[in-house]
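Thread: quick sanity check before group meeting

JM: Hey all, I'm pulling together slides for Thursday and realized we never actually wrote out the predicted structure for the chain we discussed last week. Dropping the sequence here so it's in one place. If anyone has concerns about the input, flag it before I start.
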Amino acid sequence: MTLPESPVQVATRADGVRLAFRHVLGHGPTLVFLPGYKSDMQGGKAQALAAWAADQGVGMLRLDYSGCGESEGAFEVGTLDSWRDDVLTVIAQAGIGPLILIGSSMGGWLMLLVAEALGKQVTAMVGIAAAPDFTDWDFNAADRATIAATGRIERPSDCGYEPMVITQGFWQSGQSNLRLTHIVEIDCPVRLIHGQCDPDVPWETSVKLAQQLRSSDVQTILLKDGDHRLSRDQDIALLIDTVAKLTC
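JM (edit): ok, ran it. Output follows.
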C-alpha cells in the first residue's frame, strides 16, 4: 500500500490558531487518529493506517495538535483540555459524521475525552498503549515538588526529542481529567492493544481502563513481546486488522 498525497488543510480555533489536518473522504465511519505526546500525524502508525484506509476506500482524518507538527501555537502551552478542543475543532470544521477514534499513548487518554464530548457520533475506539492518567501514576513526590517549584519537569526521551518537557499547566490539566478513578461513561465498542514489554506505560493500565469503561464490548489485546511504540510490521498488521473489523 502506498500512501497517496493528501493536501494539508487548516481548521482555525476561536483564538486564531491554525490547526493542520489531512482528511481523505471514504465510506463508513471516518478513522480519526490521535497521536501521542509530542508526536504528530506523520508517525508510522498514522501513515500505515492512512495507506490502508485509502486502499480500502475508508475515510480518514489525521491532525496535529496546536504546537505540534504542522499546526501553529506553542507546544508548552498545550494541555489535555486545549488539545481535546483542538480535536473537536478539526472534526467540526472538517464536517465529519460517524467516526472511529484511534488513540496512541497520550492520544488514548484524549480519545476518552473526545468520545465523552461527541457521544454517539463515536462508533468505536481503539487504544494503542493508551496512557490515561499518566500525570497521576507516572509522577512521584519528587516530580510533583519539581513541577510546583519550577513550573515544569524535563525527562529524557528515547523518541528523538531531548528533553521531554511536561509543564505545570499540562500536569494540572491531567489531574483534572483523571479517568481511571471512576466509571468512564462510554458505551461503544473498544479495543485496547498493549505490549507487555512497554517500558513507559504499564500494560495493566489498559486492563484497568477496560474495567472502568461502561461499555460491555471491550477487548484488551496483550502482546507479550510488544514495546510501547508497537510499530513493528506485526504490530501494524494487528492494528489494521483490529480497525478493519470495527469498520464492517
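AS: nice. DSSP finds eight helices and ten strands in the chain. Residues 180 and 236 are 27 Å apart (CA to CA).
JM: adding both to the slides.
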